[in-house]
Amino acid sequence: MPTDQALKLAQEADLDLVEVAPTARPPVCKLMDYGKFKYENAQKAREARRNQTNVVIKEMKLRPKIDAHDYETKKGHVVRFLKAGDKVKITIMFRGREQHRPELGFRLLQRLAGDVDELGFVESNPKQDGRNMVMVLGPHKKKAEAKADHAVVQAEKEAARAATKAERDAERDAAHAAGPVAKKKERGRSENLDPEIEA
């Protein structure tokens, strides 16, 4: 259809003539309310942005001659990050003569990967990067799954806390209810048994 005819049709229908496929031969156009079309596209884009998950890379730095306790602490952080669905970049920092012993860093990274293999996998193998050696661990669970699991665990903890609080409140109320009567009985017994009062 010639462009002027299409424009006339659009004016008669009180709509806009919108080119939807400019690369096609001939170009494809539609009669539509352009303002409404723009609004719907913006809504779709906003919804897509809301549903997309941002991949966060956490970083953990270690030394080749790390102490056993420090290693356990750092491993605990890595476990927490992987449980939350985040990737973890492990960096081994070499200083001085340590640079001539890269196998120490490689063994340490392999050990860490083995210790957390039920939560994550080696996404990028250990690589020497100047004075550092870097490895990236990826989580088995996606971020959304990790969030859902965390929400379930939090709800269970909250329910357990509420049950414990209700038990304590019931015990306290029972103690308050029986409290004054029990105290009077105690006082009565002590008055009767006191030898000075009898004498």
Automatic annotation (TrEMBL):
One of its GO terms (molecular function) is translation initiation factor activity. Signal peptide: none annotated. Residues 1-48 form the Translation initiation factor 3 N-terminal domain. Residues 55-139 form the Translation initiation factor 3 C-terminal domain. The gene is infC. Its main location: cytoplasm. Belongs to the IF-3 family. PROSITE patterns: IF3. Pfam families: IF3_C, IF3_N. It is found in: Cytoplasm. Keywords: Initiation factor, Protein biosynthesis. Residues 145-199 are annotated as: Disordered. Residues 145-175 have a biased composition (Basic and acidic residues). IF-3 binds to the 30S ribosomal subunit and shifts the equilibrium between 70S ribosomes and their 50S and 30S subunits in favor of the free subunits, thus enhancing the availability of 30S subunits on which protein synthesis initiation begins. Monomer. This is Translation initiation factor IF-3. It comes from Nocardioides marinquilinus.
